[in-house]
Amino acid sequence: MPNSQPILVSNGSKAMGYYLIAIVVLVIDQLTKYYFKTALNLGESIAVIPPVLNWTLAYNYGAAFSFLADQAGWQKWFFAILGLVVSGYIIVYLRKAPRIASTLSLGLALVLGGAIGNVIDRILHSHVIDFIHVHYADVWHYPIFNIADMGICIGMAIVVYDMLFLENKRKVS
Prior knowledge:
Elements: H1 15-39, E1 45-49, E2 53-60, H2 74-96, H3 102-125, E3 128-136, E4 140-141, H4 147-172
Antiparallel strand pairs: 1-2, 2-3, 3-4
């Protein structure tokens, strides 16, 4: 057969399962942010696993690693709109994604839940609520993050894995 591509069936209504995953990430994210915002004062820290993990309430007015946090406030709407555009694209794409691309769809669902979680913070609070503080004593500190950030990072790692190792296999299946 000359260069025949397999016919890939789209997720269609199966995308609802991936939307449910996104909703679970979103709900856990928002519940944990609410808990830590009400349980701690800004900057307050509680050791969980000394000397590597604390719960520390922090507000991020920028994006990852506080990118653009020192700007005059326009970044709130920039990142909120960007998050909404990316979320809208993922919502549409999850219905059209090949059904056999379940790894890709899982990654996108995690990104979707995280993106919406951080957009909600930006719109309601003008900042993102962070509380997971990984560090080593007072020597090294990773930027404080939240469940939404974990969903985005883990989801993107899964998407990259799919792109590198699974996407070409779908083309020849």
